[in-house]
Amino acid sequence: MHFDIDGFRNWQHRSITLLGMSGVGKTYLSALLRRNDWFHYSGDYRIGTRYLDEPILDLIKSKAMAVPFLRELLRRDWIAIHNKIEVDDLGPVLSFVGQLGDPDKNGLSLQEFNRRQAMYRQAEIQAMRDVPAFIDKARRIYGYSHFVNDVGGSLCELEEPAIIDLLARHTLILYIRVPQQDEIKLIRRAQADPKPLYFRPAFLKSAVKDYLGERGLTYVADIDPDDFTRWVFPRLFHSRVPRYEAIARPHGYVVESTEVAAVRDEQDFLALIETAIARKAAAGASAGYPASTGTTPPAPAPQDTD
To answer: Is there a contact between 214 and 232 (Cβ–Cβ < 8 Å)?
Structure first.
């Protein structure tokens, strides 16, 4: 959706998609807004509780079945295993995605890693397709006035233009960009605590080849999972930036992560969006493009998919 400032101020039921790398403040903003009559839709939470719930449980059960004591309890239905995922703790999703490398260090083979990557990608696509229905039910069922879509950092890598078009029709896309001077801070923070990541297949193939060459290794099973994740993150970060920009340029608005860090309440957040709208209008005017004079009306919401 596109707005001028008056159109945004008069938007009765706001729906915002927060776009950007992990660590730029998407979940911080979502938690803040959740306290102010905003429905927080977490893409990864939806993935874990709906689209990967059964595969995650199957993985846990397969590990438990390798322990004789637990195997007997499971086979007799004397114990049950549940997938406990919270909006602020997506550990089971990350554990399922896993890391590539040495099985003795909990690494996955390339074949298994690719299988889980493909499953995650499809789950993220499905979770984003659910956004219009959740915008509707957030207001109609739960009584929230506004909606914030907290998407994973990998949204830009899905290579599904229809998903971006869908989000642009139903939400205002706000890209949180990391200023160049702060990029190294975000990269170092991610490297200090390496977590499972989603990679485009072509990117992963190239990265694995280069990593093996640089480290003098022959097999994926020789890869240290944490070392590979630390090594690949800067490359991944810089590959994603132009992809985010390509989404935000035609479809959304841009703010800096430093501006997000200064947001303390809902009014700060709304003011920040107005600033982004004004900046885009000014940039368009200087380039000779007509300024937006209103809002792009949302498409009709589909029926619930739950």
So the answer is: no
In whole angstroms, how large is the CA radius of gyration of the chain?
A: 21
Q: Tell me how far apart the alpha carbons of residues 44 and 57 are, in angstroms, rounded to a whole number.
A: 16
| CATH, residue 10 | 3.40.50.300
Structural domain count of the chain? 1
Amino acid occupying residue 246: A
3-state secondary structure of 177: strand
Look up residue 205 and give its two tokens: 């193939």
Helices 161-170 + 110-129 axis angle, to 10: 30
Residues with Cβ within 8 Å of 160's Cβ and at least 6 positions away in sequence, in order, are 125
pLDDT at 40: 96
- The span from the CA of 270 to the CA of 275, in Å, is 9
Distance, in Å, from the CA atom of 263 to the CA atom of 27, rounded to the nearest integer, reads 13
Q: How far apart, in whole angstroms, are the C-alpha atoms of residue 207 and residue 71?
A: 38
Return the number of other C-beta atoms located less than 10 Å from residue 285's C-beta.
Answer: 11
Per-residue pLDDT of 113-132, as tens digits, reads 999 999 999 999 999 999 99
- Residue found under tokens 């935000």: 248
How high is the pLDDT of residue 287? 57
CB 134 within 8 Å of CB 142 = no
User: In this structure, are residues 47 and 275 in contact, taking their beta carbons and an 8 Å threshold?
Assistant: no
Q: How confident is the model at residue 85 (pLDDT cuts 50, 70, 90)?
A: confident
Domain that holds residue 118: 5-286
Q: Would the CA dihedral through 1, 256, 261, 226 be positive or negative?
A: positive
Interval 251-262: pLDDT, tens: 999 999 999 999
